[in-house]
Amino acid sequence: MPETTKKHATIKDIAKKLGVSTSTVSRALSDSWEIKKETRDLVLKAAAELNYHPNPMAIGLVTKKSHTIGLCVPELVHSFFPKIITGMQRALSEAGYTILITTSDESYETERKNLLLLKQNLVDGILISTTSESHRNAALYDEILGSGTPIVFFNRVCSKINAPKVIIDDTKMAHMAVEHLIRQGYGKIVHMAGPRDLDLTKLRMEGFLSAMKEFGRTVDESSVIDTGMFIDDGAREMEKLIRSGAKPDAIFAFNDPVAIGAMKTAKKFGLEIPRDIAFVGFSESKSALIVEPALTSVAQPLSQMGEVAAKCILDKINGRAETYPATVVLEAALNVRESSVRIR
Amino acid sequence: MPETTKKHATIKDIAKKLGVSTSTVSRALSDSWEIKKETRDLVLKAAAELNYHPNPMAIGLVTKKSHTIGLCVPELVHSFFPKIITGMQRALSEAGYTILITTSDESYETERKNLLLLKQNLVDGILISTTSESHRNAALYDEILGSGTPIVFFNRVCSKINAPKVIIDDTKMAHMAVEHLIRQGYGKIVHMAGPRDLDLTKLRMEGFLSAMKEFGRTVDESSVIDTGMFIDDGAREMEKLIRSGAKPDAIFAFNDPVAIGAMKTAKKFGLEIPRDIAFVGFSESKSALIVEPALTSVAQPLSQMGEVAAKCILDKINGRAETYPATVVLEAALNVRESSVRIR
DNA sequence: AACGTTCCCGGGAACGTTTCCGTTGATTTA
DNA sequence: TAAATCAACGGAAACGTTCCCGGGAACGTT
Q1: Which residues contact B197 (CB under 8 A, 6 or more apart)?
Q2: Interchain CB distance below 8 Å, B86 and A76
Q3: Residue B22 approaches strand C within 7 Å at CB
Q4: Residue A67: closest CA among chain B residues belongs to which residue?
Q5: Residue A15 has pLDDT above 80, yes or no
Q6: I need a surface site. Which of B7, B76, B238, B303 has the fewest CB within 10 A?
């Protein structure tokens, strides 16, 4: 009978084969200083021969580290977060960490469940982009933080929590976008703002307002209209706008979907873009290039954002948190395209 | 001094508090039959009071199950797989399983690394949609299967491996799409095929060919052209086609991006869609609705596919594999839109 | 009345690893 | 040369569970 295929070779098997103790093997594998070079090589060779792979659960049980970090994002289907995740995975897998992904579906209750799940699964740290109602879970964030699990916020942050945050300067970029519209000579500019309770909404609106103010534009209650964050929301609000006879000359939308939805309606009503009305989105998506005319938008360094957030959480976990400031602000870019360029 | 906040309450803490043995507590928590109802309630109450949560690592160490299933997809940024993942998460989290996501970036080497990583992390099962060169890892699939870890393929499968697969009938749907074009009265129909080494490419091409044959259309080497799977690929091939003076009347593309890229080029050259040329895509994406005119495409039940694949792997893990056939074929739908409807 | 059952429960090994503590022989120091 | 340091290793506890084995009541069964 051939050597029965034992499920997995353990440290003991190596020890037995070499006639040494498990401690020695462990030390050799972890490259401890208190090990002779020759025995270490011997162990390494035997480990390779036996096709040894350490059991992460056993390690986790004694070290109380899972080498897993939990991720909580609102959704996955818009390719926004997936791009961020790509960056995270690069940084984390390099460091030997693995990601546990959960989606909150824009519901703070699901987010709460997910966070508790992550805690129970003993993740070493949590990366989170909150739902629009982040304040509702603020207490939970604090509780988790208090229990010793580090948290890093990215993109959508909870401002009142004292934890590292990785973001772009939304206000500045919004300002820049609106300034672009103004310089292009568009008259009445309307801001389609996002969900009320999202921090991002406030920040981008601030940018809108500051740009309007800087250039002496008047702002009244009709300058900003509440919208959601999806295509349908933009389409609906645009229709209302047009039907009310208050067609603006330009729209600065909370994000690309809203802008695209609004564009769709505008075209349906026979408006020509950008002659009759201009559009600027935010958080550039692939759709910005597919839609016609191509949509001007603020491009975020998504993959980099993921990478930075990941490195940040690793530093937190490994106690090198001092090297990071509380908030990292990344550089974004305004990509100007046909949807907002005045034809001369 | 107040009760020092011990990191986590364990089963021993409960046992000590109640003056029973750990075995009893364990039995109570796992709802064993050999436990008195009253003591079980006592344990449950104490557990709640102590805010007890079982340590998954300790459990995994002894039961040799991680309650984690590994996922390996080619990419995440096209919202195709994220939609599938959403379905998976629903089914898996419901069953108390957690999901470990890896992306292979269309590289079979990365896929190989990921699979090995998953194995080392002792996942209970693996869900995979392969890279275009799946045959290169066929031996690895078999090895993993042989080592006792079940695998379920979905969407992109490796045909030579004997494992459950969850797919749609690509050939049938391709046939249907092409039939639609023919019935609309389009003359010269060209198929922009996907990557040569992808199973899906062959299947969809078969559907194209069978439909052409069924309706007595002639097929020569100019009827099928190799493309990649991205927007640029479609754009490039379309340009070649037009410049060569061989403008077809309709294009059946391997997928939506290729169709959209081709559409873009067609419009650039002044062709009107669908009058001068019609387009049909595959694997409906959001972009199909954003592009103008809206793109006819085959919609796959993505979330359902994820759910079915997840349930399948759970059945495999729990030894109820007999309830499933080797291959599950889901129903897809051809969504006809303006891009392929002949104007009368 | 002796004997099997059934019902509950405790003791303790086992899972695979890290790590503390101790030991030994060799080397250096006073 | 005795004492102290050091390099390299073994022994064993610990991490938090599950689960097998065994045992003592309480309950029927012949």
Answers
A1: B132, B133, B134, B135
A2: yes
A3: yes
A4: B121
A5: yes
A6: B7
